[in-house]
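Lecture notes, unit on protein representations.

Consider one protein chain, 298 amino acids long.
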Amino acid sequence: MRLPPLIAVRFFEATARHASVRRAAEELHVTPGAVSQQVRKLEDFLGCALFERQPRGLALTAAGREYQTACAEGLAVIGHATTRLVSTRRRQVVVVSCTPGFAVQWLVPRLHGFLQQHPDMDVHVGSTNRAVDLAAEGVHFAVRHGQGRYAGLQSEVLVADDLVPVCSPRLLAPRRTARVADITSARLLHDEHRGDWRLWCEAHGVAGVDCEGGVVFAHSNAAIEAAVAGRGFALVRRALVQQELEARELVSVHCKPLATPLAYHLVYRPEALIDPALRRFHAWIVAQGSAGQSSLSI
């Protein structure tokens, strides 16, 4: 049995179905030039033209119409067989790297919904503050805190709300309202972004507070846990403590939030979205970020 180059067959079938090189390229996530090259390769192999190149587009030749029918049927059979084997033998895995605080406070609480929607997929979360090499370490997506400039990588803003001081209501008893005057040096809870309290004090004209005072934690989730326990004030993004605020485990200080040029960004290699499973996760996590910002603005 003599078989043609199967990748060329796939590119031809998509081009014939769309009657367009450009639309086939969009479906296959390659360039139009790559599609044209594979179609010409198949025509050379078969020794006949499959398309008539017309001024307004492509039209199948008689041989092309006959061959398209056979190719579509063959690819459908292969596709169904592949789906059955893959679904029974392995699960699709998405590898995500993020800081420990972001993992605990934002990502993991939301993941249950994604996994319910996609029971054939697993998400592996690696928590670290160091910069990871996505290609070398097999990481599909990273969430990083910064200005979003990463050479050779795609970057999208995920969480960008302003910073607010929060504390436990127990720290305020018998009052229930947190005031700027309640914040003292000894009550400061710092996370890995230690300079945030200094910026907040400067923005609000707060004097007499030693911004180096208080307790320093390696991760923001530890600072938030300390605030819930009534140990002091943590300066955090509201999106990371939305559940605690709704449950009244934390209350925010009545003051203007601190705007910052930094944000949590979703970072990935441009070719990552070729994979349908990774595209599903990307669409989900971006939607979660947008929904969170919308709920905070209400």
